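Friendly challenge for the regulars: who can give me the C-alpha cells for this chain first? No prize, just bragging rights.
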Amino acid sequence: MCYLGPTTAAIVTTFMWKSKKTLRLFWLMLMFYGGSLFGVIDHLWNGELFLVSENWAKDVMLGVVITVGIVLAWKGILFLAKRNPELNSYLLTTELK
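First reply, four minutes later:
Bragging rights claimed.
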C-alpha cells in the first residue's frame, strides 16, 4: 500500500493547483502522479494491489519516504532553476492558462 502516500499528495496538490495555477505546483502534481502510477504498477506486477501485508506500518512508511523523495527532487529542480537563469525563466515565471 506504499502508493497511498504519493496518491494522497497528488490529490491534495491537484486541489491546490486548481486554486493557484502555477507551473511549480503543476510539476509537483505531475511528479506525485508519476510516483503513484509507479506504485500501482509495481503492486499490480507483484499481484498485491489491494492486499495489506502483515507489516502495513512498514508499507505506509515506505509511502511517506517516496512522497518525501518526490518533494526533495522537486525542490532540487527548483534550486537548479534558480541557479540557472535559462531554466528559471522556463520553470518559475511561466504561468499556465
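The chain has four helices and no strands. The mean pLDDT is 84. Your move, everyone else.
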